[in-house]
Amino acid sequence: MQRMIFPFAAIVGQETVKRALLIAVVNPKAGGVLVVGEKGTAKSTLVRSLAEITGEARLIELPLNATEDMVFGGLDMQYALEQGKRRFLPGILARANNQLLYIDEINLLRQEFLGSLLDAAATGVYRVEREGISCLQAAACTLIGTMNPEEGTLSPQMIDRFGLYAAVSREKNETDRMEIMRRILAYEARPAEFCRQYAAANEAVKQQVAIARSLLQAIVVPEAMILLAAQMCAKAHSPGHRAELFLLEAARAIAALAGRTYLLPADLEEAACYVLPQRMRQEEQPLPPEPPEQNEPEPPGEEPPEQPDNQPPPEPPASQQEREQPAEQPVPPAGQPESQGSDQEKVADIDTTFPFIRMALALPQDRQERRGSGKRSLTRTDTKQGRYVRSGIPHGQVTDLAFDATLRAAAPYQKFRNTAQCAIAIEREDLRQKIREKRIGSTFLFVVDASGSMGARERMRAVKGAVCAMLQDAYQQRDQVGLIAFRRQTAEVLLPITRSVDLAQKCLRHLPTGGKTPLAEGLTAALKVLAFRRQKDREMKPVLVLVTDGRANTTATGGDGMADALKVAGKIHKTGVHSVVIDTESDFVKLGLARTVAREMGSAYYSLRELSEHNIMHIVKNLS
Amino acid sequence: MQHNAVYPFTAIVGQEDMKLALILNVINPLLGGVLIKGEKGTAKSTAVRALADLLPAMEVSTGCPFHCDPADVSRLCDSCRGRSEEQTLPVQSVKMRVVELPVSATEDRVVGTLDIEHAIKQGEKKFDPGILAQANRNILYVDEINLLDDHVVDVLLDAAAMGVNTVEREGVSYSHPARFVLVGTMNPEEGDIRPQLLDRFGLSVAVAGENRPECRVEVIKRRLGYEQDPAAFGRQHQEEQAKLAADIMQASRLLPHVTIKDELLLLVAKLAIALDVDGHRADITVIKTAMTLAAFDGREAVEPEDVKKAARLALPHRMRRRPFEDGTLDWDKVEAVLAQP
C-alpha cells in the first residue's frame, strides 16, 4: 500500500530530532537513533517523513504483530510445494538490509526478540537456524526506534545499541503551535496539494543528504579528533568504546551535512549531544544484586537527599529530564509537631522524590522467570489469547494450530504425497502448535501500617512515596494491586484487588495515619483477601507487601498484639504466599520487630532506607 | 440487522454530551473518536449501536474488502490501486457501519491472518482480512475498552497511528488501509486505560445516570414502550431520526468550507500551553472539533463559543498526563484563557 506522507520539511520545530535523523541517514555507522518522547509529538510522523528524503534507501517498518519467522525469515512454502526442496524465504530483517528499519513503540517489544534484532543490526549479519534451514543473512540496517517512556523504559543495554539518542517534546511557543495546527489542517484537507507546496523544501533536504553522503567518504578523522573524542567519553564515564566510535561517525555526518570534507571540534561537540547523554546515565546503573552505591536510573537532581552524590553532573539536553519525573516536589510542611503514637489523625502527602522501585519477581517454581529482567509479567500461554510469536512441535493434542508453520512443514514432502483431494496433503507429523505469549500481571497486595507511630517524622510521607514508586512499577508491568491499611482498632480493605493502579494511588494519597497498630488485623484481612482471590483465579501467584515498623500493640481480641501478629504471620507463611516486609523503623534504638514478623512470614526483608538506595526489590530472598 | 431492531438514537433521554460527541465524529471522522466513561446502565452501548441508524452512505469501490474510497487515490488498497490503473473503479454506495471489536478478540482476528481454506485448496498464501479491515472508513466500537488485552491495544494503536494495518505474520506480509473512528466505552472502576490509548481518542465524555425523577421516569417509559413494540416505537421517532440524519449530511457537506480565524488558533495554542498538555493532539483536536461544531450549527465561520464547547469535549482526558497524575480539567483556567482579548 502506498501512503501519502506528511513532508519532512513541513514539520515545525523538533530540530534536534530532525538533526539526529539526518545524521543517522547520512552515516549508517553512526548507529541509528532512538527517539524518545511523550505521545503526540510527531515522533512517528518525523520518522516516516524520512522515507522521502533518503533517496534510494527505503523505510522498512516492523509492526508489533510480526511473528518471529516473518522477521528472521523461514522456509519458502511456495517453492517447497513446487520443487519439493527447501529454500529460505527472507524476512523483514533481510528486506531491511542497507535500508532504514523503523520500530515504533520499541519498548513494547519482547526483550529477547529485540535483543536478537539489535544484535543483527549491529553486526550486519544474522544466522538463521530454523525449519531445517541454516544460512547467514545480511542485515546491515540503520535502526530507528521510537518510544514513549511512560509505557516503560528500555534497559540501558538496549539503549546502548543505538548510536544516537534524541528527545522530542512539545512546542512551547504559541506561534509555533499555531503553525502546527495550520499545517495539519491544510494537510488533512488536501494532502496532495499540501505535499506539492513543500516539494521544493523537501527536495532541498534530500539534496543536502545526497551531497553529504557523497562527501562522507572523503572525511578523514585526524588524530587530534580521536583524542578529543576519547577525552569527551572519559569525562562522561561512558563504558566501552562504542561511544567514541559513534561520536566520531556522527561528527563525520555533521561535517558532511555542512558540506565540508574536514572535521571541526564543533562537529564533535554537536555529536556529543546525541551520543553521550544516554551513556552517562549508564555509569550510574549498578548490576542489581550488587551492594548499593549509586543506582539512579532517573535523571539527576531528583535523588533523595540521603544519597551520596558522587557522580559527575551530566549535562543531558534539557528534554532528557522530562522522563517520568513529577514536575514539582511538594515542600514538606515545616515544623510538624511530633506525635509518636498519638491518636491525632493526619494525612501525609506522597514523597514524590522517592526513586522508582523495580519489583523483581523470581518465583522459584516458575520456569518463565528466566525470560529476563523486568518482564515478570511475560509468560507463555496455552489459551488462544496471547500474541502468536512462533510455532513449535506439539506435545500431545494440538489445541492451537499454527497453520502457516504446518504448511511449511508439509510443503517439502508434497511431491511424494497424494494430493488428489486438496492442493496440500498434511500428515500428523506436520502439525505445528502456535506458541503464544501474553503479558500477565502479577498481583500485589499492599498492607500498610497507618498507625500513629508511622505518622511521625515525615515517615508516612516516605512510606507513601515508596508504595507509590512500587505502584508505578506495577502499572508498567500491568499488575493487579490491592491495598489494605491498618490503624486504630481495625484493618480496612481500602481497595480490593483491581487492575486500577490509579485507584490504589488515590487511596494512598488520602490515607490518614493515627492511632494504635493492629498488625494482626491487617494480616488477617490480607489472608482473607488473598483466599477470596484465589477462589476466583487459581493460577494467580500473589505477593503480599507489608509496610510496617512492626510495633504491633493492639488487637481486636484484646490479647497481646505482637503474639497475635506473629501467629497470623505464621499462617500466611503456611499458605505459601510470597511476601516482602518493608521495615519503616528509623528510630535510634531499633527494636527490629518488623524483622521478626518477616522471619515468621518467610518474607524477604528490606528497610525503607535500603529500598530507597537499592531501587530494586527481590521478592524472594531466603532469610533463614 | 433489522432496521427497527435498534433503539432510536433520538429517543435516548439526556446524555447530551455523549450524543453530541458521537454525532460530531460521524460528521468528521478525522476527529479521532470518542471515549465514553460511565457506570453500567447509562445507555453507553445503546447510544453507540443506535448511531448506526444515522450513519451516512458512502461511496466504496465495489467488492473491496476494505471499502476503499475510489475518490481518494492516496489511500487505496493494493488491489484497488492495481485495478484503478487499468480502468475506473466501479462504485457502490453503502452505509457506514459500526463494527464491534469484542474484548475477547484474538490478535489474529483483529489484524487478519492467513486464509486457511485458500492455502489448502490452492496451495497459495492469501490474506484473510480481520476486524481492522472491516473497520476501515467505519466506526470501530470497543465496549469496555479498558479490559482489552494489551497486545490488542498495541495493534489498535499501531493501526490508528497511521491509518494502516500492517500484517507480518503466518507467512503473510500485507498492509491495507485502516482508518476508523474509534469509539470506546469504559467503566473507570474496572481498571485503567493506558495513557497512550487514551490520547488517541479525540473526545471524551463522562456519562452518569439521570438524577432528576422526571427524567428517570421518561427513560423507563421509553424503554418499556420500545420493548413492547419496537417497530411502533421506531415509527414514533422516525421523523426526528430523519431530521438528525439530514442535519448530519448537511454538516458533512458544509465542513470543508468551514474556516477559522488566526486569532482563534492562537487562543487554542495559548490554552494548550496554559494547561500544559502532552504533545499536540489536544490543540489540533480542539480546533477540528470547533470546526465540526460550527458545521453542525450550519455556519462556515468558527466562533469562540465553538472553541469553548470543543475544549470541554477534547481536553478532560488529556489532563491526566501520567499514570498517576490525577489531572482534572481546570475549567476556570480554560475560561480565563478564552476570555483573553
Automatic annotation (TrEMBL), chain A:
Broad EC category: ligase
Chain residue ranges for the region called Disordered: 282-345, 360-386
Classification via InterPro entries: AAA+_ATPase (IPR003593), ATPase_dyneun-rel_AAA (IPR011704), BchD/ChlD_VWA (IPR041702), ChlI/MoxR_AAA_lid (IPR041628), Mg-chelatase_DI-like (IPR052989), P-loop_NTPase (IPR027417), VWF_A (IPR002035), vWFA_dom_sf (IPR036465)
EC number of the protein: 6.6.1.1
Keyword vocabulary terms for this entry: Ligase
Every VWFA domain range: 443-623
Keyword Ligase belongs to the record: yes
SMART domains recorded: AAA, VWA
Domain of life, source organism: Bacteria
Molecular function per GO: magnesium chelatase activity
Biased composition (Acidic residues): 293-306
Assigned protein family: Belongs to the Mg-chelatase subunits D/I family.
Protein name in the entry: Magnesium-chelatase 38 kDa subunit
Underlying gene: bchI_2
